[in-house]
Prior knowledge:
Number of helices: 14
Shape: globular
Largest sheet: 9 strands, parallel
CATH architecture of the largest domain: Alpha-Beta Barrel
CATH topology of the largest domain: TIM Barrel
Structural class: alpha/beta
Bound molecules: flavin mononucleotide
Distance between the termini: 22 Å
Amino acid sequence: MSSLNSSNFFIGDIPVRGKTILAPMDGYSDSPFRQITRKLGSAASITEFVNTMEVVSRNTIYEERCSFQPSERPIGIQLFDNNPERIIRGAEIIVNKWNPDWIDINMGCSISRVANRGAGVGLLKDPHLVAEIISGLTGRLSVPITAKIRLGWDNESINFLEIGKILQDNGAAMITLHARTGKQLFSGNPNWDAIALLKQTLQIPVIGNGDINAVSEIKSMLDYTGCDAVMIGRAALQNPWIFAGYNVDEIPLLLFQEICLEHLSLMKSFYGDSRGCILFRKHAKKYLSHTSLEKYLIRDLLTTSDPDLFTEKFTNLIISTDKLI
Ligand SMILES: Cc1cc2nc3c(=O)[nH]c(=O)nc-3n(C[C@H](O)[C@H](O)[C@H](O)COP(=O)(O)O)c2cc1C
């Protein structure tokens, strides 16, 4: 893995050292998880998406999503919206207050409340609007602007090449392609030929994304598509150690234990003890699936609401693990 992590590419003038990046994931890629994955080898960080409607209305609910530690840098804050003025205003507020290394625009989210109002993957239906948003952002902001796209809205409107050129021509500094259409959601296979074509067509860095589940697949995607780095989402939830070059069945026990306990501790400091433990349950469930613990012990842990008791039980389960499956 070290050779994979030695080369650089640049987002604008920001160097990125490494070939794997944690995907932005609503509800998961928060500051604690980004700290964990960055430590394990993710080359950069991107926040969960932030709704710029909330930013401009000064609804402070979004602020938790923008907060990060220096160790997570280089970091992009991801925004979604379909209104150029609002997204530019929101980006300015965020850059002034949080000082991220870049701003990423979500053009891939397919959930209906986002896509049906023309944001997320809905933007791909309107290339002129994409141009207006990106040229407005690159004209007004001093940090690089990047975008995360899909192949198109649906099979009948595949336009990632057109969108890619528009993004580049309007000053975008990097594109991530989740190589499926919006309508596909997560079904079917990602189209690696599309990633290769986008990379061949553009001069700015292209990040490939979709269904990377094992360490060997990272190199396969890099070699096949020529992309500058690979973005990993769902597989990293199950196995953040993939960024250190370990498949699920290869995770060193001591590193497993260290990371599980550190993740819980980061969650408690970020969200407070009670909320941190509750939000950690979904991670605990995934981590404990690598152990041979009886199901009733896991169930008991996941229904424990007292944070001190939860911490004690989780710690005991983790340190008594002597074998991973
Ligand atoms: C629970 C979940 C939340 C997601 N939230 C976001 C998001 O906030 N922004 C975004 O660009 N993509 C989001 N995605 C899409 C991922 O970034 C990624 O493109 C997708 O999961 C495909 O990569 P994978 O096959 O490695 O998981 C999300 C995906 C999942 C599973």
